[in-house]
Amino acid sequence: MHAYRTHTCGQLRKGDVGKTVRLSGWVNRRRDHGGLIFIDLRDHYGITQCVITPENPAFAAVDTARSEWVLTFTGKVVDRLEGTVNADLPTGEIELRIEQVTVQGKAQELPLPVFGDQEYPEDTRLTYRFLDLRRERLHKNIMLRAGIITSIRKRMIEQGFTEFQTPILTASSPEGARDFLVPSRRYPGQFYALPQAPQQFKQLIMVAGFDRYFQIAPCFRDEDGRADRSPGEFYQLDLEMSFVTQDDVFNAVAPVLAGVFEEFAGGKKVTKPEAFPRIPYAEAMLKYGTDKPDIRNPIEIVDVSAVFERADVEFKAFKGKTVRAIPAPGAGPQPRSFFDKLNEWARSEGAAGLGYIQFEDEGGALVGKGPIAKFIPPAALAEMAKIGGSKAGDALFFSADAKADRAANIAGQARTRLGRELNLIPQDEYKFCWIVDFPMYEWNEEEKKIDFSHNPFSMPQFDRDAFMALDKADKDTILGIKAYQYDIVCNGYELSSGAIRNHDPDVMLKAFEIAGYAREETEEKFKGMLNAFRHGAPPHGGTAPGIDRIVMLLAGEENLREVTMFPMTQSAQDLLMNAPSPANSKQLKELHLRVVYPEK
Hints:
Largest sheet: 8 strands, mixed
Radius of gyration: 30 Å
Structural class: alpha+beta
Shape: globular
Helix content: 25-40%
Number of strands: 24
Oligomer: single chain
Distance between the termini: 65 Å
């Protein structure tokens, strides 16, 4: 008989009754019943109930066992007594009558119990992550993650992609976040960077003629964490394709994502790959107030700026501003406290407030109620209701600001909040969409300069000769240029950013020049890529869906920590391994470094 186990703790069934077997695992739960001791023994595969009677010579040893001790039991498989069958367990029809016990490992008093699903502080959970990972929900999430990655790999290979690995130590590049820098011992004062993404390498793979590449790629960004973004590192399905248009990328990626979601969605509806709607960036910002809209939410924002500019509208606070209206179907009868609460929330977000109108029917006529309704005559009210698709029993909320992007931002947040509070968002589906036609550039108000708005390596949607002739003084023309850039969004989460790449070295130099990079600087920073492009580069494009967010959505979690095996805290600390930690003087000397602490 094997030293530790003949079966796993999730394997035994009624057909095994009468066999002498050996199991090893952790004490999930211990119960004393009138002299009998019941141990629920748990391993990676499941739980088996084990029982021992006082007359058994091994009873004293079992009696000392406590939660999370590691034990090996040898004994006979028997039927459970009538009325004690546990239909919730695959092993619930049988139990193991313990004859021998070996203690493999004792556990100290637990800082958090494994049995049950109580909530514990983040610091406790991450310091004792090895215990946290034994808990059923988290263990299940990590196995789900492994299954999803396996499925993705299989689907990508079936689509004709080949998996390649790209370097981890590389050069810094302007991806939009801070790099993690690694000092070089051999080259004093010089640094490697951990890749924010394998962007340049995957493009070079296309130039090298490999056509369809993918990788489950680790990426590193020195940015603050939040619920849907891990601090430090994350994984993405990185992919690139040669000789493709935007449509070709969509047709390759959508079936992979839709297929994975269908496989693991647990019966929830999933958008069919051919039905992913394509929403231009400008339309998304108008209708949804965000470039990552949850299109399960039926609310669509509308612009009512012109209505408030009418001469007969006396509400001066909105004059000369961008005014976005957020329809709230069925919210009309809500109490005043409902509206006051939303108004206070808007102020907490930095807005002046959130005006509103409640629509009612009076003798067959639509009338408005609320603090600003008296300033709006019937004709203007009717026009507004028509634009917003509002009727009696509905309400309209308003976000107004001198800057259109700020009005859109608050309107988008209000749309999401209203969708949740009015229970308008169905929870039984995953709705995908493509956001397309991103602006190539944006205006940096602080530095008074033109910046890249998204991926700097994207191909502009602009005539080549006209693009090459652009001058920085052509600000309006430049800010109007769209790029072949696209995002995949699911249920309000951005899963992926991608683009058809700029493979023309002259156009690439010009694109960076417009964003304020001198030609010499671009040549130096992207020497490898530009050199490659000058030796025959195919048109190519790709994208990179985030693995962590895919798993988070499919697991029904709201924080990436719940689907990551060893996450950092929100403040980017690894409490289990005590990182980051100081380097000793020998290490610093070898790296030619000296630590200068910030002044307090």
